[in-house]
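Our preliminary data section would be incomplete without showing what the modeling component actually yields. Below, a chain of 245 amino acids is followed by its predicted structure, encoded as tokens that our downstream tools consume directly.
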Amino acid sequence: MAEAASLTVSVWRGAEQGSFARFEVPARANQTVLDVVTYIQRELDPSLAYRFACRVGMCGSCAMTVNGRARWTCRTHVRKVVDADGALELRPLANLPVIRDLAADLAPFFDKWSRARGTFQPKDAPDGAVPEDFAVVPPASKQRREADAGIECIGCAVCYASCDVVAWNDEYLGPAALNRAWTLVNDVRDGGRAERLDAVAGDAGCHSCHSTQSCTERCPKNLDPSSAIAGLKRALFWDTLLGRR
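Predicted structure:
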């Protein structure tokens, strides 16, 4: 079957109360969804708002909702996601306020990183001072492997936009913030373990996760936030059982 000569693209325009606008875009070989959005902005409607930076799957800033699923648009080829009629529907990331068009406001997402105590706290350098020497962490240690499993998160918010719990509970910290907390809990150089576990133990924390694993399924970096959240639950259980809380 010959490929369609053009794509019908429905693009969200406006803020929370916006609507879709439809564009016809030429279909090209090896075309990414970001290519489509860029064509619309450059050739059809220069007022279209969206984000991108690296274009090569490194920064995550081009994430949008493509035919109902959060994705990095720079690494999403049109032929893999277009429907049978050659149509695309593009929205901003879900579970976040809309600034305009395809640009979501990530401030609530990063605020929750702060609430989960996602900042490294060196145990050997009080009051935020810089440690005098590098800490040696054996690469084969269990803690190092647990920390390494989630450390490559770049904060693109795809997991957050895909999370069913965030969708109905906007206080929930979300998979990225909890993944970051678990990474730091396992960092033997960090001195903020107790405060961090307190931060993720409440009603908005790890125990609210329903383990549907949408975050793990859709993470563009192939990380496993679901396992990180399960790790936090175990850590809290054992700390409570052993009287450390």
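The longest strand covers residues 6-13. The domain at 6-104 is CATH 3.10.20.30 (Ubiquitin-like (UB roll)). Preliminary results of this kind motivate Aim 1 of the renewal.
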